[in-house]
Amino acid sequence: MTSPTDVLSDTRTRMTNSVDALKRDLAVIRTGRASPGLVESLMIDYYGVPTPLNQLASISVPEARSLMVQPWDKQSLKEVEKSIMKSDLGLMPNNDGNAIRINIPPLTEERRRELVRVVSRKVEDGHVAVRNVRRDSLETFRGLERSGDLSQDESRRARNDLQQVTDSFIEQMDQLKREKEAEVMEV
Q1: CA–CA separation, 147 vs 80, rounded Å?
Q2: Is the domain of 125 the same as that of 178?
Q3: What does 43-72 look like in DSSP terms, one character per residue?
């Protein structure tokens, strides 16, 4: 028999995964500062295999507004450069034969507002993921109640606990949204 505690524990785990996924999504949204997270998940065509950049190169931040990408295999320099240029990040890589330097230009006001809308969309997607987990857990509680493994009072209490857990994860996501929006709008 599955207990409400087990269901809530599984729910917390799945919701934590949703928050972690949101953090990864928000890390690649560009701000005025250089961050390796900006390019590390870019997919590079490495000998016909799409590979994340962080598996092909070291990415460092030599200055506040620049990144340096040093591929371990110098043959992949051209592909790395091409992928950075094709990305929607609006970055221009400079290839010196050994490494690629990327200067991070300051963001325009219009671009900042556009990025804030992107942040809002990603957070809303995170909210949907958390609500889907809640819906699955509610169905589990209803099933336990129908089968007689859970009384109506226990089911109501479990659903209230579930709503509190859901609200706390939604609040975590909203806090991430506020922080990222402030970071994007910072000049």
Answers
A1: 57
A2: yes
A3: EEEETTEEEEGGGTEEEEEEETTEEEEEES
